[in-house]
């Protein structure tokens, strides 16, 4: 007891070095990898990861494989690593979630019920375009990758395009300057000029018809939600291509009705 008291007294007097915390190197490295990939809109290759976090390729591959097995990373087009579903779960923790307007959520449910397809609500959150909510209809086919919390692939996602179309120049530049246009299908927009042309068409028509830019077998429609003349969110619905042609008029009508509901 006396020894402990003397140690405490010495520490208070500045005579004893505070005990250093023990850290685990592999956890620190994995954390740096996750942060590097999270900060890259298009994801990173293994080589890019190794360079950014200053690791050897064998170590990088081992850590990437572990994070992928744990669901924290996923590998997309061009062997580029992006955040996986597990990381999305972390991002969507209650304390970090953006607040969803209750009327927008009700409009989303209305859209899914009317079309029997999967409907999405997308908005701006902390400078990024993020899927805020999703509701699946009774006939819905889930599109892999389109999860709540997703912020990437804005050039190929219907609702993200709508928000970019109505964004101001600074908002649009913050996303598109230096952006990498991953080709998901043969019709995916692949350069800034073509994308700006597409955005201008959205502003002209007020609705986006996506005929297979994100997935060959999926069609999407999206329209903006306005408040006091400003676009604040977008609703979208995805439909398997095998039934889209015969249901398009009804889907368009349901989308516009849901938008009208959300705005009033």
Could you explain how this protein is built, in words?
With 264 residues, the protein is of the alpha+beta class. It folds into two domains: 2-90, Winged helix-like DNA-binding domain superfamily/Winged helix DNA-binding domain (Arc Repressor Mutant, subunit A), CATH 1.10.10; 101-263, Beta-Lactamase, CATH 3.30.450.40. Helices cover 45% and strands 17% of the residues. It has ten helices and seven strands. The protein has a five-stranded antiparallel β-sheet, with helices on both faces. Helix 3 packs across helix 4 (57-69) and helix 6 (102-115) runs antiparallel to helix 10 (241-263). The protein is globular. Mean pLDDT is 88; it is low at 1-12.
Flag low-confidence runs: 1-12
Give the terminus-to-terminus CA distance.
71 Å
What is the second-level CATH architecture of the largest domain? Answer: 2-Layer Sandwich
As for the number of domains, it is 2
What is the 3D shape?
globular
What structural class do helix, strand and pairing data support?
alpha+beta
CATH superfamily of the largest domain: GAF domain
Helix content: 40-55%
State mean pLDDT (0 to 100 scale).
88
N-to-C order of helices and strands: HHHHEEHHEEHHHEEEH
Number of strands: 7
Main β-sheet: number of strands, strand sense, barrel status?
A: 5 strands, antiparallel
CATH topology of the largest domain: Beta-Lactamase
Order of neighbouring strands in the sheet with most strands: 4-3-7-6-5
CATH class of the largest domain: Alpha Beta
User: How much of the polypeptide forms β-strand, as a percent range?
Assistant: 15-25%
Compute the gyration radius: what is it? 23 Å
Count of helical segments?
10
């Amino acid at each position: 007891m006396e020894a402990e008291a003397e140690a405490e007294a010495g520490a208070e007097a500045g005579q004893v070095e505070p005990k250093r915390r023990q850290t685990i190197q592999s956890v620190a490295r994995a954390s740096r990898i996750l942060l590097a990939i999270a900060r890259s809109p298009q994801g990173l290759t293994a080589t890019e990861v190794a360079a950014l976090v200053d690791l050897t390729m064998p170590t990088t591959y081992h850590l990437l494989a572990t994070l992928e097995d744990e669901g924290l990373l996923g590998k997309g087009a061009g062997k580029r690593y992006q955040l996986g579903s597990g990381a999305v779960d972390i991002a969507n923790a209650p304390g970090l979630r953006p607040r969803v307007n209750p009327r927008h959520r009700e409009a989303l449910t209305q859209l899914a019920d009317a079309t029997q397809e999967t409907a999405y609500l997308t908005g701006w959150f902390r400078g990024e375009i993020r899927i805020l909510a999703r509701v699946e209809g009774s006939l819905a086919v889930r599109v892999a990758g389109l999860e709540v919390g997703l912020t990437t692939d804005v050039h190929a996602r219907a609702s993200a395009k709508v928000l970019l179309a109505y964004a101001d120049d600074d908002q649009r530049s913050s996303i598109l300057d230096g952006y990498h246009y991953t080709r998901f299908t043969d019709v995916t927009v692949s350069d800034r000029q073509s994308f700006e042309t597409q955005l201008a068409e959205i502003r002209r028509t007020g609705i986006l018809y996506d005929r297979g830019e994100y997935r060959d077998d999926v069609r999407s429609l999206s329209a903006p939600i306005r408040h006091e003349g400003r676009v604040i969110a977008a609703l979208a619905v995805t439909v398997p291509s095998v039934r889209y042609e015969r249901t398009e008029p009804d889907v368009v009508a349901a989308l516009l009705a849901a938008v009208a509901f959300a705005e009033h």
